[in-house]
Amino acid sequence: MTDAFLSVSQDAIRRAGLNAKEVQSDLSSLGGTDFAGLSAGALGIIGLPAVLRHNLSQGDFHRRVGAGAESARSISSGMRATAEGYVTAEDAAIQALLERAGRTSRLDVYSDEMRRRLHPDHRPEGQSWKGGALVVGGVASAGLAVGASGLSRAFKEDMKRWSPGSAELARLQKMSGRTHALLRVASTTSWNAGIACVVWMTAMTFDDDGVNRVMSAWQDRAERLGVIFGAGDPTDREALARAWEGDAKNAADRKLRDFVTAGIQLADRAVAKAHGLQEAVRHLNRAHDLAFAIVVKEVCLMLALSLLKAFHPGARIGAEITGRRLAMAIASVHGVIAGAMAWKIFTDVGEDFTEKQLPGIAPQDFPVIAM
């Protein structure tokens, strides 16, 4: 028997339908490798609500994975399967949907196409993100007459240059710590700067490695589920749409259609969470970079004025004015950071994108076959 014949035979077997036992094994393996959620210090004190929201949605996700494994077990035991363990459907459209499971490419979680799929109503190509405009606008509204307009322009250009094809690691802990260290220095010359230092402490983060691990875990789960259920490219859902165009021929076909649909929707949930957390990290990285740049500029000016106090009495007043301006800037960036976390993590990561991903198809739960 030639290798070519073996290859053709195995391909024909894989086209036979859905191997429920393999799906059960894959989902059980995925459910058995649960990952720790975001730690309490991952996003600072002001980020605690977002952390709680994320961790609750993560728990719900893993309960769905467990339900999928149990559903696959009931299908493999309660439905007639081929000798190789594949279950098939009588309806041609549903059968085509089953044949995609386990045989599509891995999801490209951070692609530009994926971003447009998740957010079809805004962020067109060639424009900076809505979040970038939020940060820049928030800082500008603070009236930073210290050259922040140049920093804002640099920030906006950086957001425009962003390439969505790769992940970006969190550097919040490093940058927030550096900003706090400079504010402590500034607090020795101005009580307004001391207030800014206290306010900034609530925005300090302490677990960049944990945030990066969670981002990587969501990406891994999205990619693995995409292969298990044939999610593939989320913009190519013709097979799924055809399977839902009419009523299934029988109850068994309906169960199989619901099962694969629930799996694709679960993959989409993982994609949305991976993408939402990654966008949040990008926004927060930029906000912390901007805060650090502003503080460096103001602290240098305040230190120079403090040295001049012995020679010019007006320098003391100048230091206090600069400290007040610094406090305003920190309050503004602090508010923007809180807003970015509320928007990108509390809302986006906690939101169910199923209806956006699969318009016209209601959210499905994994069915259980009575044995």
Q: Helices and strands in order, then pairings?
A:
Elements: H1 3-14, E1 18-19, H2 20-31, H3 48-78, E2 86-87, H4 92-100, H5 112-118, H6 130-141, H7 148-160, H8 172-186, H9 191-201, H10 208-228, H11 238-243, H12 251-308, H13 314-349, H14 354-357
Antiparallel strand pairs: 1-2
Description of the molecule:
The protein is mainly α and 371 residues long. The chain has 14 helices and 2 strands, in the order αβααβααααααααααα. The chain has a two-stranded antiparallel ribbon. Helix 8 (172-186) runs parallel beside helix 12. It is elongated and about 95 Å long. Mean pLDDT is 76; it is low at 1-14, 122-152 and 154-164.
